[in-house]
Amino acid sequence: MTYSRITGLGYYVPENVVTNQDLTQWMETSDEWIQERTGIRERRYFTYGKDTNASMAAAASRQALDRAGLSPGVVDVIVYATITPDYFFPGSAFLMQRELGMEGKPVIDIREQCSGFVYALSIADQFIKSGMYRTALVVGSEIQSTWIDKSTAGRNVAVIFGDGAGAAVLQATPSLDHRILSTHLHADGRYAEDLYVREPGSSRPNRAATKEMVDEGGFDVVMNGNAVFKHAVLRFSEVIEEALAANGLTPGDIDLLVPHQANIRISEYVRQQMGLSEQQVVNNIQRYGNTTAASIPIALAEAWEQGRIKEGDLLCLAAFGSGFTWASALIRW
Ligand code: COA
């Protein structure tokens, strides 16, 4: 049997730090409100002319490949998760592939929102287990600062999101001891409009964006924060339990939980549900906000850098997001 193993992790966050206090120049909000409701202190915003979605992903990927001791040329496939691509089409995976000089290699763009990285990891894992590919680059990258409404009208959404990118290199291994054990994916389209952006949608009478579409708020993120919160706490716990049960394990076996960084209160709820200590859960939302598909690989790469992941550890990745989607992965490091 062939399995897949993560052999390199990398991340890139733009240098521009935007604090909660900075946000008050555009909207009525406060550091106290944001910290109390979300745990976020600051986030990063990309620099126009320097960063793009694909360039940030390429930087994260270069670091992940360096740490794996590999050059881009040996990668067989790129699986790239984002909801904020550089172009409407083709996807940013093409642009990153070009930047890394990997012409000819297949790229897969996926858009499963905050669960995007775990979906991408699962896809790469299946390719490797089936024997089709031996090395995969799995990426999550987002520039959210351009589409959030930074006026008071958009503050419930705007304060949450940030920009950044993370990447993981997966390689084939025969080892039963160090590998991705399993991945678990879910979606429920009944809640699509509880967290969504309508435009630029194709099911419209006109080709061009009209003033009405803009005025109606079609390009703004619509979020039913309460519904998202309630579903998230339920699905996070459920999908972690599912992964553990599939492997004959219990919450007590988890060494490190890396949850999607949606809200510190959601992470805290899940931590308590699982009976884990604070040291066993990775939280960096305080510094980066919610970076959607990039949040798990950034958190994972930081945890690795900080020496929080040791050989043989049982890692659990878990995500919940728009769609709704939810997903988990269990990894024996
Ligand atoms: N600053 C100050 N006040 C704000 C604000 C902000 N940034 N955003 C909203 N408010 C106000 C509201 O206008 C409302 O005022 P009112 O009582 O006068 O009407 C009040 O704060 C409470 O708003 P509400 O939306 O009920 O707050 P909440 O306690 O539900 O917290 C979220 C809002 C968004 C933080 C919370 O719902 C949440 O975290 N949901 C999950 C979101 C998430 O994780 N999304 C990503 C999924 S991957």
Radius of gyration: 19 Å
| Total DSSP helices | 11
Strand order of the largest sheet: 1-7-6-4-5
Strand content: 15-25%
Q: What is the CATH-assigned architecture of the largest domain?
A: 3-Layer(aba) Sandwich
User: How would you sum up the global shape?
Assistant: globular
Poorly predicted sequence stretches spanning 5 or more consecutive residues? none
Helix content range of the residues, please? 25-40%
Structural class: alpha/beta
What is the chain-wise order of helices and strands?
EEHHEHEHEHEHEEEHEHEHHHEE
Quick check: average pLDDT?
96
SSE diagram, text form:
Layout lengths: L2 E10 L3 E4 H4 L7 H8 L3 E4 L7 H16 L8 E5 L10 H8 L7 E4 L5 H15 L4 E8 L12 H4 L5 E10 L5 E9 L7 E2 L14 H5 L6 E2 L1 H22 L9 E4 L4 H11 L10 H4 L6 H11 L8 E8 L3 E8 L1
Helix pairs in contact: 3-4, 8-9
